[in-house]
Amino acid sequence: MPRLILLVCLLLAACAQQPARDDILYRQLGGAPGITRIVEGMLLRVAADQRIVEHFQRVDIQRVRDKLIEKLCAEAGGPCVYTGDSMEESHKGLALTPADFNALVENLQAAMTAEAVPIPVQNRLLARLAPMRGQVIDR
Ligand code: HEM
Which residues does the annotation say bind heme (predicted)? Predict the structure, then answer.
């Protein structure tokens, strides 16, 4: 019996980590063209955001753009495979704070608003990103 309970727990944990199985959110975000515009809009806002722009000064911004599009597409249930580094690996050494995280989210929200993405849809994407917070910031 304890073995069965362990198995059920392991299965539940595995399911919790699976990406979305439907592509509703992906389509609500405008598919690949919509997500591309959202990521580019977010990065343009980051470039003008004195709170966090410093982190992005010496990075390959084209790569970050491409990998972010893949990541958001995959998290939203789109037909993309994320080929970038893990969240831990890509943010290691950046010493990101909760305030940095909030600033990036604000820029993402502004980019989505500019693309006329309804607030409930915005919140659905943010909810998919929230579990990565602990992998990205240095606590
Ligand atoms: C859930 C939130 C976040 C997600 C999903 C995310 C996603 C990504 C992805 C996909 C990459 C590219 C990985 C690769 O090159 O293979 C990346 C890199 C990067 N991210 Fe994030 N990120 C998040 C939060 C943040 C925050 C809050 C900041 C700073 C304010 C940040 C700053 C950076 C920087 C500077 C890089 C480039 C690192 C390098 O190339 O050395 N990220 N991120």
Answer: 91
Residues 20 and 78: their CA atoms lie apart, in Å, by: 9
Rounded CA separation 76/129 (Å): 10
91 is in an annotated binding site: yes
The alpha carbon of 59 and the centre of ligand 1 are apart by a number of angstroms equal to: 10
Q: Give 9-27 pLDDT, tens digit per residue.
A: 445 554 455 554 799 999 9
ipTM summary value = 0.97
* 56-88 pLDDT per residue, tens: 999 999 999 999 999 999 999 999 999 999 999
Structure tokens at 50: 């004195």
Q: Round to whole Å and give the CA distance between 109 and 113.
A: 6
**Measured between alpha carbons, how far is 109 from 118 in angstroms, rounded to an integer?**
10
Question: If you measure from the C-alpha of residue 35 to the centroid of ligand 1, how many angstroms do you get, rounded to a whole number?
Answer: 16
